[in-house]
């Protein structure tokens, strides 16, 4: 929470929940990544928050961009980044979208199977490809499942196929799971990467790059290590597995770049109990799973919530959103401590909400408008 955000909210007169994002925090985060990993290029994961002001700032600071669709590529180009600074990092692309990206000048593509390599070879001949490998997301609060990536022992074959089809077999990528609280989780994937580098070198293919993905955390209720500790652990793992032949590296922070730059202001719509004996209060906010807080799914992300009554006695509550969908409950399995004095009409501030909120908001479910966003 910055003074600029507090000032902005004090002056705001409009009704309804909103997310306010402070660009100064994004600038500090970019600088911290650049310092923590000085030889690594930063590709901001656009999906975390594609607000034009964020993309403009990062383009000016020299960031590159990880994109997942042609629309994201167009947003980044509009922010003034050249196509050499864009990676089409989604492993699931329509061939005509690859062709459109290629026509824009994008020449770096993610793949994780031979069929995707063939699409890239047809639609973007001569482009660079990196193969994503599966990585166990343990330790991450928002794990990324098996949807993307192939087994490490398949990656060599995928990249060899790319090489045969005239593409540049450029490197490997992985993602250790979003909100990864353990800086040592890069070690296993880097061991697997080094083995693939060696294997392909023996077959005459010199890979050049390891994409270390995202996963850098934002501080929610629990503390997280500083970016500098991630930089240190990653550098040590690179040394350990690649010796003095460390490849070119890139990172793709999303949450870690913008999460702590944003705050949501919301309002308490109702406080009630379900029966006379019920000890647990229900606190209903004007924001929920469908207008910005989708990451409370399975109570995975637990945002810090501040109120004007902080310091008063607290009581565990169930927190829910405003829609008529029964899944629109934010925290129930693990109830949330809120001040007893919190009442209908009170404002609450939900911190750490700069990433994965505005674009996760439904367009008009139940008549609730999409989450308003202000970038200051
Ligand atoms: C979403 C995504 C990221 C960003 O992940 P964070 O955990 O938010 O840092 C990075 N790379 C790829 C390929 C992604 O899909």
TrEMBL record:
It catalyses: L-ornithine + H(+) = putrescine + CO2. GO terms for biological process: putrescine biosynthetic process from arginine, via ornithine. Residues 25-258 form the Orn/DAP/Arg decarboxylase 2 N-terminal domain. Keywords: Lyase, Pyridoxal phosphate. One of its GO terms (molecular function) is ornithine decarboxylase activity. One of its GO terms (cellular component) is cytoplasm. The keyword Lyase applies. The active site is at residue 324. InterPro entries: Ala_racemase/Decarboxylase_C (IPR009006), De-COase2_N (IPR022644), De-COase2_pyr-phos_BS (IPR022653), Orn/DAP/Arg_de-COase (IPR000183), Orn_de-COase (IPR002433), PLP-binding_barrel (IPR029066). PROSITE patterns: ODR_DC_2_1 (PS00878). It is an enzyme of class 4 (lyase). Its EC number is 4.1.1.17. Gene3D superfamilies: Alanine racemase (3.20.20.10), Lyase, Ornithine Decarboxylase, Chain A, domain 1 (2.40.37.10). Pfam families: Orn_Arg_deC_N. The modification N6-(pyridoxal phosphate)lysine is found at residue 47. Belongs to the Orn/Lys/Arg decarboxylase class-II family. This is ornithine decarboxylase. It comes from Lichenibacterium minor.
